[in-house]
Amino acid sequence: MRAFLLATAAFSTLATGTAAQAAEAEGELKEIVVTAQRRSENLQRAAIPVSAISGDALLNAGISDTANLSKLVPALQIQPAGGSTLNIYIRGVGTLQGNSFGENPIAYNFNGVYLARPTAPVGSLYDLERIEVVKGPQGTLYGRNATGGAINVLPKAPVLGELGGDVTLEYGNFNNKRGNAAINVPLGDKAALRIAGQIVNRDGFLSDGYSDEVGEAVRASLKFEASPQLSVTLVGDYFHLGGKGVGSVLVPGTATPAGFPVVSAPPIDSLIGGSDSRSTAALQAFTAGLFAPPFCGGPGGFVTSGCVQPPRGDGFNDSKFYGLSATIDADLGFARLTVIPAWRQSKPRFLTYMPGFRGEIAETSDQTSVEVRLSGPDDAAFSYVVGGFWFSERQTATNFFVQGNLSTTRFTPDLDTDSLAVFGQARLRLADTVRLVAGARYTDETRRQSTSFAAGGLPGPVFPALGVPATGRLQFDKITWKAGVEWDAGPRSLVYANVSTGFKAGGFFVSLPPNNSFRPEELTAYTIGSKNRFLDNRLQLNIEAFYWDYKDQQISFVGGIPTPTGIGSGLVTINAGQARMYGADVELQYSVTPNGTFSANVQFLDGRYDSLVFTALSVSGAPVRTGCTITGSRAANPGTPSPARFYDLNCSGRATVNSPRWTAVLGYDHRIDLSGGLGLVLSVRSRIESRRDLTIDYLPETAQSGFTNSDLLATLEGKEQRWSVTGYVSNIENNIVKAGATLRPVLNTVYAPLRLPRTYGIRGTVRF
Q: Is 604 exposed, middle or buried (0-12, 13-18, 19+ CB in 10 A)?
């Protein structure tokens, strides 16, 4: 570590000019202001690992949906989970979501408001100031469910005294039609209104029409500045997600373990959707070689029209999301007071076949929160942020999962969550160039449930009556903390080191008590990093090394669950014991010429489960398909038709899910000045990933091999950038990449949603 610090200081002294010289240099890099530490600061002075993406960069990348955000940040992986649900991973920290019990361990915040539902982070990526991706546990300033980090989405705020706006229209292949618009209107000298909206309508790229993108969104923001010391900003937003929704393909399979037939499905690069007749015929052929209980037709295999229901073409999305919030900022002289009261409602309603079987969810979630912060002056020898956070959520839902007459599961969760926290973080200047940082947060969380559920088939009634509700109450409290040091190694060089902890409360999953809950998870992160500007502010080099110690990680998978009416399939959540992640992240920007900038963001990650043991159900009694070690088996619970068995699996030592060893995002932008004030901007960008496992099944079909996706853009800009026209090609290689994977229970076949194939189109923007 000492050598690292000395080398940074020496390089800074030799390569960095004075601040005045940097300000005068041509082609200098722009400064970016972030609020990742609950105060406004230069990105290069924020002593934490954080990546910032401007709203313009998102627009140029064609990203209008959170699921595609990962293409710009190496540490980030986002998987669709059916309907509007998203699984978010940062450096291998994340978990599978699929029903109303799920919560992400990555805090997603929109306009400073925490969004609890994994169905809610959709439809917000338009008219943005920036997005911040904070890596590592944020147990002090963010708290709830920020074990692996946080994503902060910051919309553009109204501007006082300014009349203006912009309109963007786009058309591309797959009949991709989208439009964005925003207008800022002054209301006298002390108020302004900003209204923005987005419409997206793209056909599905799978052969059965799935994996489309259809949505409408609107946002209104009103800012009122009562005095130089007091301002209030009100924000209301609405988003509707429509279309058929995310689809998947049946993945060709291997013959492991012995006794399983080969899944002779169409190759995934043919984009044959799971409900396409060519895919369902492959499923029918596969099931014909499996064990068939008498009530499924006797010898000769399962009957796909009865006991095994294949994906169908009637899937849909009809999900609605609403939000209201206020941000009250008051300058008290000695400190700044910020109060953020908020209400959000999520009403996901969808039918999906993405996991290979039918899943229906209709849910209403109302969340209310209030955050209060008091921040001392940033330039004082002792600066601080202290505050409190109150959160309450009420959920009612119906979840229905159908694999055919062989197995159905239906449950109606009624869930309540209340969370209260107090927090503080302080920075003490020991010398002109050295500061100490310390913070802590106390969280108290209570969760309650009343869930009726039933399992059908095997060989009882397919739609049995719901049983007596399973009730329960869980309470958790925890102190999380952070300690660190910051050193200004040069005029534009910062070195930092810190230790921070994160915590995610335990909860319930659908099963009979007492085996229907899981414990909290905890993560301790050790980080050392350096942020630098060299060569008269033309070269930016940020380096971070990290080691994460993960305890009791919450991992979810589709498994067998006991119900009041037999054995069903459901999303089981367990605590994985121990995991660890370590690696390094390098971010580089270089202004090669006054008109050309090269960027490179590279991450090395080694993530392993030191302990991961769980149980899987086999309806036929044959060994389950797994890449892990089978350590034992036993007969299923009484009442389950023979020969069903449970198998104990040990996946210890395997790589953590969604953890490619190497990931890089490379880019180059070059502007050519033309006559008449016109400009031509040429851009190229590539994301390169090594192999990663998508599920804890560790099968060949549930892995994604290494790939490269590249984008090419050419933009003609008008005088003073009043208008622009962009032609683009994304995924030039047309590489077909799995966005996730699911091992369908009972059949043990794999279905995978896919990322976009090659897309191309034209986009025009007018600013006024």
A: middle
Task: Of 163, 237, 246, 233, give the one whose Cα is nearest residue 202.
Answer: 246
* Interval 436-481: pLDDT, tens: 999 999 999 999 999 998 887 766 677 778 878 989 999 999 999 9
Contact 739, 80 (CB under 8 A): yes
CA distances from 638 to 405, 495, 725 (A): 20, 61, 67
Confidence check: pLDDT of 18 > 50? no
Q: How many CA atoms lie within 13 A of 423 on its CB side?
A: 28
Which has the closest alpha carbon to 553: 95, 188, 45, 158?
95
The answer to whether residues 95 and 554 touch, using CB atoms and an 8 Å cutoff, is yes
Contact 443, 475 (CB under 8 A): no
pLDDT band, very low/low/confident/very high, at 65 (cuts 50, 70, 90): confident
Q: Which two tokens stand for residue 681?
A: 């901007």
Residue 80 has pLDDT above 90, yes or no: no
CB 393 within 8 A of CB 419: no
Task: Report yes or no: 523 and 496 within 8 Å, Cβ to Cβ.
Answer: no
Peptide bond before residue 80 is cis, with ω within 30 degrees of 0: no
Percent of the chain scoring above 90 in pLDDT: 68
The lowest-confidence range among 51-60, 323-332, 433-442, 538-547 is: 51-60
Q: Please list, in sequence order, all residues whose beta carbon lies within 8 angstroms of the beta carbon of residue 158, skipping any fewer than 6 positions away.
A: 184, 192, 193, 194, 221, 222, 223, 233
- CA–CA gap between residue 724 and residue 680 (Å, rounded): 9
754-763: average pLDDT: 96
Q: Residue 704: count other Cβ atoms within 10 Å of its Cβ.
A: 20
- 716-730 b/e with 16+ CB inside 10 Å = b? ebbeeeebbebebbb
Domains of the chain: 2-767 (2.40.170.20)
The 10 Å CB-count burial string (b at 16+, else e) for 551-561 is bbbbbbbbbbb
Q: Closest Cα partner for 743 from 579, 616, 574?
A: 616
Q: Do 242 and 213 meet the contact criterion of CB atoms below 8 Å apart?
A: no
Phi first, then psi: what are they for 153, rounded to 5°?
A: -105, 120
Q: What is the pLDDT of residue 293?
A: 62
In terms of residues, how long is the chain?
768
Q: Please tell me the distance from the alpha carbon of residue 689 to that of residue 192, in angstroms, as a whole number.
A: 44
